[in-house]
Amino acid sequence: MAGDRTPLIAGNWKMNGLRADGRALARGVADGSAGVVVELLVCPPATLLAPVAEVLRGSSVRLGGQDCHAAENGAHTGDVAAPMLADIGCAYVIVGHSERRQDHGESDAAVRAKAAAAHRAGLTAIVCVGETEQERDIGRTLDVVAGQIQGSLPANGTAANTVVAYEPIWAIGTGRTPTPEEIQGVHAHARQSVAAALGDDVAGGMRILYGGSVKPDNAAEFMRLSDVDGALVGGASLKADDFLAIARSCG
Ligand code: PGA
Questions:
Q1: Contacts of 137 (CB under 8 A, 6+ apart)
Q2: Among 78, 103, 110, 241, which is most exposed with the fewest C-beta within 10 angstroms?
Q3: Burial class (CB in 10 A: 0-12, 13-18, 19+), 181
Q4: DSSP state, residue 69
Q5: In ligand 1, which atom is closest to the CA atom of 94?
Q6: From ligand 1's centre to the CA of 214, what distance in Å?
Q7: 51-76: pLDDT as tens digits
């Protein structure tokens, strides 16, 4: 982790939780966050944004959405617009998560349009990239990640309004992870790709998170890597103690 990039530990709750669960989890994270030096973010499902925002009021824990539409409003049944997320208290939104890319056929161009919409609404976009197991097996990881970065980051991306999350698809929810050396290699390559797209200054300041089976017992070895600036955490973010233990492992 480099000194000038504040680490970000983001919890992606995915499609989990009713209001009572969401409030309790947010309360646990907020209560345990005193003394945590990194930036903490929780991304609940859309129905929990309002109750979680209420619980987090006055705490340093930030709120984010899990997706947004590229348009500001209109006839898009079931979707949520970036200004709606900002209005409810979000500072961040995840875009291009592999579950969206796969389940909803989102292309790099669609992800870029969502990230641009996030920026227009004043949100920081967390743009997810990562290879499938098959792409890894045939040695295409670096090409895939570079191509997704090239295609998914808007031209006005800055270190302040954009975060990249490297999430190998085969590591999500599986308990399997790349080695620390592999992660550092992909992150360094990802940073070069950001530099090629947006310039060296932006790349030097942009946070690149690792995601995929991050747990309290493996987080420290990932967070010490020079190009890893935090984590996007799925399963382990559903327990406040585990999420906070991951955050503490950055220190
Ligand atoms: P996981 O999910 O931590 O459960 O592997 C990570 C993610 O999909 O963001």
A1: none
A2: 78
A3: exposed
A4: B
A5: 9
A6: 7
A7: 999 999 999 999 999 999 999 999 99
